[in-house]
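retry 2 of 3: previous attempt timed out while embedding zinc ion. Reduced batch size to 1 and resubmitted. Inputs unchanged:
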Amino acid sequence: MARRASLEPRSRPPIAAGTVRPVALFDIRAFGDPVLRQRAAEITALDASLAQLAADMLDTMYDAPGVGLAAPQVGVQRRMFVYDINDGNGPNTVINPVLMGHEGEQTSEEGCLSVPGLSWPLTRYEKVHLTGVDLDGNELSIDAEGLLARCFQHEVDHLDGMLLLERLDKRDRKGAMKALRGRTLGFSDLAGESRARSVGHGS
Ligand SMILES: [Zn+2]
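retry 2 succeeded.
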């Protein structure tokens, strides 16, 4: 995800003295990039490169700003996402996430960092259960509701190659495609807006 229209832009958490490191930002892949349409591969080994990837994804997410970012959005075809919904429990990384169950429905405005500047009312499950592992290999088992549940559904969709556009009803999707076609014509503007500074990480 997940830029949420109603959410205040959030700022980077304070960095403790002595832990300053260079900020590395990815380019966020935008709608139309084929990498967003592919199913990402299961992660089979936890290593230092994965921790570095997560750290750089978090920098990119906070910079955007957004509340979630999936690896395919930075061109990496692996099943991993980072999130921080600004509830005091972030930042977090989930590897090989699986949605196990769901309950109820919620409808609210939802956007995506890969479809910058646009959002739509979207119906999702109100509650979901998510499993996966964290960067240390600890098993995760999370009951989520509200925004967190929405974030999980959005990010797992990314790992399955699905954008929120495909979840819109027929009328909203038609409007969305029209808006996006208009943007493609003025692509230089869109690129300038969505392309953050890039340090390292060509991918
Ligand atoms: Zn997204």
